[in-house]
Amino acid sequence: MIFHKPILLNEVIEGLNIVPHGVYCDFTFGGGGHSRKILEKLGAKGRLVAFDQDEKAIENVWDDDRLILIRSNFRYADKFLRYLGIEKVDGVLADLGVSSHQLDVDSRGFTYRDRNELDMRMNRKQKLNAVDILNTYSESELVSVFSGYGEIRNSKQLAKAFVRSRMTGKIRNSSDIDRIIGTVIKGEKNRYLAQLYQAIRIEVNDEFGALKQMLGFLENILKPGGRLTVISFHSLEDRFVKNLIKKSDVEGNISTDIYGRQIFKFREVVKGVVVAGKEELYQNSRAKSAKLRIAERL
């Protein structure tokens, strides 16, 4: 049962330049769409190590001796690879989007439809959820989340509204959020809600922290000539990936050798980003904001 229609599937497979006997990682297994295609390209001696922190991903696994699925956040992938005795891999894929299952199942609390209870945990074993953030974060902490992760322009006004609202009752569901937002904006709410829910989700799951940690060890696990493919959906995510590829540092700091020459660890395989074509956008509207970057380890 594949929940997640794989985005930019053909572009990812082409970008990975799969060697039949190689070892590959799918850092975001989800419904298994990308993994299945990778395995089609691998020979009998090829291996695919996949990761997913959502327990529902286990339901999508099929029998294949070449596939190992590890239930974990990809931020710990380097440690698991060492445990498996894998020093280097030939390619990695990370699709940073939220799966269709997480979006479509109301009990997960990822969307603002109906009266969904707030949750937004990708790993439901962790304690922190959306309710905790909205009811315990200080006003300044909420401002940082709303502006930094959701790029909400009136973040200060919105944070004040949340703090004021929780003084009279706990914020628990999407109806509470809708009511609070109604006090700070007029007219169409959908785009604003999408930005807010994105911001809360990123904070709940420490998505940027996990991404930076993962990007930080890629140079150590990729073989020379190994391929990196990352699909991002947020401008900051894409910036971290771009910085790694062009400056060898997720924060954009430039490293130089003793002669002052910049040190490069990756080479762009495709200049800039790859985006979905008209046909894919027609079939899958969630591909609209997807940006794929492809690079090779030097």
CATH architecture call of the domain at 105-204: Orthogonal Bundle
Flag low-confidence runs. Answer: none
What is the CATH fold-level name of the domain at 105-204?
DNA polymerase, domain 1
CATH domain class name of the domain at 105-204 = Mainly Alpha
CATH-level-4 superfamily name of the domain at 105-204: Putative methyltransferase TM0872, insert domain
Q: Note the main sheet.
A: 7 strands, mixed
Could you walk me through the main structural features you see in this protein, from its secondary elements to its overall organization?
- This protein has helices at residues 9-16, 33-41, 77-83, 100-104, 130-136, 139-150, 155-166, 174-181, 190-204, 207-221, 235-247, 278-283; strands at residues 23-26, 47-51, 67-70, 89-95, 222-232, 266-268, 291-297.
- It has a seven-stranded mixed sheet with strand order 3-2-1-4-5-7-6, with helices on both faces.
- The protein is of the alpha/beta class and 298 residues long.
- 39% of the residues lie in helices and 14% in strands.
- It has twelve helices and seven strands.
- The model has no long low-confidence stretch (mean pLDDT 92).
- The longest helix has 15 residues, at 190-204.
- The protein has a domain at 105-204: Orthogonal Bundle (DNA polymerase, domain 1).
Key descriptive features of the protein:
39% helix; 14% strand; alpha/beta; seven-stranded mixed sheet; DNA polymerase, domain 1; 298 residues
